[in-house]
Structures are given as C-alpha cells and as structure tokens.
Write a structure and sequence with these properties.
Blueprint lengths: L1 E6 L2 E3 L5 E9 L1 E12 L6 E6 L5 E3 L7 E6 L4 E6 L8 E11 L3 E5 L3 E5 L2
Parallel strand pairs: 2-11
Antiparallel strand pairs: 1-3, 3-8, 4-5, 4-9, 5-6, 7-8, 9-10, 9-11
Length: about 120
C-alpha cells in the first residue's frame, strides 16, 4: 500500500502565500507523474498543476504565474508553492501520484488539505 500525506494548508489573506507538501510512503518502486488538484464547495475537482518524473510541468490557466509545482524524488515528495493568493483559490487541495509498486501501477490520492483565502 501507498499513502500520500499532505500538509501546509491554512488560512491566508488575499495576496499571501502558502506552501503545500505531499509525501508518499509505502512500498514504492518509482513515482511517475505527481500533481495537485482542488475542489471548491459546489464545484468539481479540477487540475491545478502536474509534474512528470522528468520535471515537465503543466498548470491550470487560472494559476499560471502564481503557483509553482516541484518535486524531490529522494523524499518522494511533491510541493506546491502558492503565491498571490485570491479568494477564488479557496478549496480543498488534493495530492495525486501515479506510483509503481512491486504489485501494480496505479494512482493514489491524499486526504486533502484546506486552503482558505480570506481577509
């Protein structure tokens, strides 16, 4: 089994910053793509950013230039730096990873971390 554990969410004022972390643990052979998704109340879960094992990234248009995704493969961890936060960034943020174990290749999700942007 593989577990993804997110941290770093919280309450921040508009224009502020946060850094989210997601650490994967378990019998991991290799982690392929990793990403962050978010879900606001009453809305569908949407992609925020993804990063491949080679370091290529893609972002939702709404966060380009404000958010940065990165990864540390030695720690099996993916990060999301959130800058210039807006009220519309308020959501539960979920980590996602495509993981090779000795048994299979499948996607895993974290439990989510709340980000609230409010004055």
């Amino acid at each position: 089994q593989v577990q993804l554990m997110e941290s770093g969410g919280g309450l921040v004022q508009p224009g502020g910053s946060l850094r989210l972390s997601c650490a994967a643990s378990g019998r991991i052979i290799h982690i392929n793509d990793m990403g962050w998704y978010r879900q606001a109340p009453g809305k569908q879960r949407e992609l925020v950013a993804r990063i491949t094992s080679g370091g290529s990234t893609n972002y939702a248009d709404s966060v380009k230039g404000r958010f940065t995704i990165s990864r540390d493969d030695a720690k099996n961890t993916v990060y999301l730096q959130l800058n210039s936060l807006k009220a519309e960034d308020t959501a539960v943020y979920y980590c996602n990873a495509d993981v090779n174990t000795i048994w299979e290749v499948r996607q895993y999700w974290g439990q989510g971390t709340q980000v609230t942007v409010s004055s």
